[in-house]
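Q: Got a minute? One more chain.
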Amino acid sequence: MSKTIPAEEEKDFFGPLFAFVRDERITDVDYNGREVWITDCENERRMCKGLTLGDAFVEQFTQRVANLVSKSFHKQSPVLEAETDRLRITIVHESAAMTGRCICIRKSPPYVRLTYERILATDYCSSRVLELLLRCVEEKKNIVVIGEPGAGKTELCKFLSGYIPKDERVITIEDTPEWHYSRLHPEHDCIELRISPQMDYTDAIKTCLRLNPKWLMLSEARSAEVVHLLESFSTGVRGMTTLHASDVRNIPDRMLNMAGTSREAARLENDIYTFVDVGVLVRRAGRRKGRNDGQIRRFIDQVCFFTRENGKNRIKMAVEDGRLLPEGSTEAAKEREQRGTYYEVPSFDG
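A: Always. Here it is, folded:
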């Protein structure tokens, strides 16, 4: 359950970190036991020179967070986590962190950092790639966004989900509030489900299907719940999710591994190619090819389409290294119709 820190108490609660917490340009505040590092909306990360968090403040802040969530924090319970409506706080005890007690504050504000104009202005992707992705949403394709931690997978999903018609019910499933769908789109039909010890991801997905969804937004596919996600897609529910992978062509194998069983592996693999339509890789890198400004940036590196036709599983690359490939169509509806542009993937029943 997310907690609330009264506005009048925030300054004392966060002490020397208060200015960073209040600054909407800053996305992450990290203390490694020695220095404070911040990351801003431009994806630039820098150390706060001259700022030292004394032991007294670190201990006081830890106690305040522990009191906020009514949890203990010591050698036997070395990880402390708390959430507010816009922050996720993690503290690791010095018995587990050899560099000293560390603090990580990640912001999840109820707004979308990505906009159509910002995407083009920051070279996040080209206008043709952007139109391709928006066409995928319009045509109700199931989308899986991948990338490393901190690449901005959820941010892209939040942006794309804003193009869903307001009368199509959206159900979000999250353990940590990041989507903020109902606050971002108060006029849309939305139900937000929260993962808890009483309801895990699998239970939430099963419950979702009883709530008349048109779209299911799973914040992150991590384990065996991926099987139930595919089952929900097979009923006609559309959706988006994220997972950790480094290449869109690895999505099927990654999902198979998460399923955690070899039972009916052939059917599961074929379901992936049948019910997952689009794979998108968001990359976070120091620089883009052809640029040398040193700025850290996020950008769409790959887009692919999955299909299963005539007993064959195929992957078609539409975007590679950020560029729309010659055979890539700006009309997503034509992607599956173009023969000869897919490469076949060996399947169990091949």
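A: Residues 216 and 239 are 5 Å apart (CA to CA).
Q: Perfect, thanks.
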